[in-house]
Design brief:
The complex is a heterodimer. Chain A contains nine helices and ten strands. By secondary structure, chain A is of the alpha/beta class. The longest helix of chain A is centred in the middle third of the chain and has 15 residues. In chain B, strands 2-1-5-7-9-11-13-15-17-19 form a ten-stranded mixed β-sheet, with helices on one face. In chain B, strands 3-4-6-8-10-12-14-16-18 form a nine-stranded mixed β-sheet. Chain B contains ten helices and 19 strands. In chain B, strand 1 and strand 2 form a beta hairpin. The chains are: A alpha/beta, B alpha/beta. Chains A and B meet through helix 2 and helix 3 of A and helix 8 and helix 9 of B.
Chain lengths: 249, 436
Amino acid sequence: MLEVKNLHVEVDGQKILRGLDLVVRPGEVAAIMGPNGSGKSTLSYVIAGRADYEVTEGEVLLDGENVLAMEPEERAAKGLFLAFQYPVEIPGVATMTFLKASLNAQRKARGEAEFSTPDFMRRVRDAAGKLEIDPDMLKRPLNVGFSGGEKKRMEILQMALLGPRYGLLDETDSGLDIDALRIVAAGVNALRAEDRGFLVITHYQRLLDYIKPDVVHVMSRGRIVKTGDATLALELEKNGYRDYVADAA
Amino acid sequence: MNAVVAFPTPAEKTLGDQFRARGATDAGRQSAYAAFSAAGLPHRRIEAWHYTDLRSLLREVLPPAPPPEAAVIAEAKRLVATLPRAEGGRVVLIDGVPWPRLSELDSLAAGVSARPILEAISQNDDTAGLVAAESLGAVESVVSLNAALLQGGVLIDVAAGAVSAPIEVLCIASGTTPAAIYARHYVRLGEGAKASIVERHAALQPTRSQANHVLVMALADGAELQHAAGIDGLGEEALHIGSMLVRLGARANFTSTTLIATRGITRRQAYLDFAGPHARAHFNGASLLDGRAHADTTLVVTHTAPHCESRELYKHVLDAEATGVYQGKVIVRPGAQKTDGKMLSKAVFLGDGATMHNKPELEIFADDVVCGHGATVGALDEDQLFYLRARGIPRAEAEAMLLEAFAEEALDELADEALREEFAGRIAQWLRQRGT
């Protein structure tokens, strides 16, 4: 279970999260929707362990263990995965080299044996095929010169390879055309499993047509202000965030 | 008119004594020494040496290395035995003196010859002009000093149209006693010749040393030369000066890649002249420096002929209290129209006490040219680091990945795949050692 308890976060002295509570259960797809500036991306970065965020109160528990004291790489090895809204370009590092380093570092941290090269290659090729990723792309430097859609598919490819306990998808739909959205959503749906949870952060309801959420949370001004089922997303699409912004203010 | 009289420093006096003690009387050495003593050791008020003040660094001049003892030769032999066979031949020098028995000259390609430079000079080959520092050598007092105190070197001739696999010039410093080395090599390519020269420097003992190496490269029209140099394994108190003097004929193609991964003080300088049109010169280099290492790369590229292309790409990784220097000067002479010259220097700081000096300069006397320069200095990108760490890659490994990619860009034009792998391996090794 992934639990966020009374989380308060500041950036440069400015309060961004103000007592956020959230639970994602194994097997569950939870969506977080909210207006721009409500703190959605901050939440995903804080869970993944990015610096520059000051947690002033609260905790984030993964199966009862507080992850806030852990380095980002430890959190990853424990099974947290953040699909970035803006995947970072890394010139000079071949995608394949990166994937192997990432997978083996996590396995090593968990005391598991590293994959042999042929075994690893087969896994990558299988996952890439499902996401309609051209194998030539894997030889190119990571994310360099990739289109928006290619970058997002690469994020899902990484998630498929790493097989996390919880996947945090930060605005994965932004910058995607409808075909890319369909492929990415299919990739996520294929990973849905009883022992794996997802936190899908999105501004628009569109993504949730493809990735059906079990729970929808509405976030405003650094808090969850309403929780409901999938129909809540449809209601938001119709009425906008106006009511919730006003409520919180 | 009053003559300007500069009082020599104690170091300059010692160098004078050394010159007289070797009893050199030939005109070439005499005029080289005259040029040196007129200018003296370069110091920080000489612009090109501003960041590497040789006058203050060379307070004590070491004596020239004595002839190697049997134990040194045996150790050099063991070192050579560990190296892969050099495809195009290998010339081994101990303390600047060619050592034929350790060299591999049987694999020199047809049309390629290598012989001791002192022999060539005594036979009045045109090398004499260069060794006497009357033409290219005169630009620098350290190059003149090299000619005056020259101990040896090799002349490599690649005949017109000949093609050679990489030829290695291995300069071994014995380090038996603190000593100075003055060596000069001359690589001459005939019309349309193709060759590759790998310059390696190794020290058997990391003793105090003062090395002054000169590599002259002259490419006739349409010739192609790949140069690579690895400066590695010098001691804390080593001083390495390496000067390249390059003259390119029309349509000549020259590429140079230098990897510096050493302690001590290193000064690598190049003076290149585009003597004929449509030639191309690309300089690349990576310097990995930690401790109190100091590496200075200074390039002066002169576009005398039109339609030539020059490129410079230098990468510095600076840890602890290391100092990196990049000075690039591109001179475009009147009439050198359609010159295309670009310089780029990038540095990454790992240590708070590290320093980087960037000084690009353009001197343009033609109106139809494209010239430019750029320089960046900074820490590793935190966004890139976080991305890698969020995928489970530990911080030290993530840093090494980014730094390796950063430094390896300087190897992109190294055509010799085995050498590129070796240099890349050295970069990776340096980064690993840094982490421990």
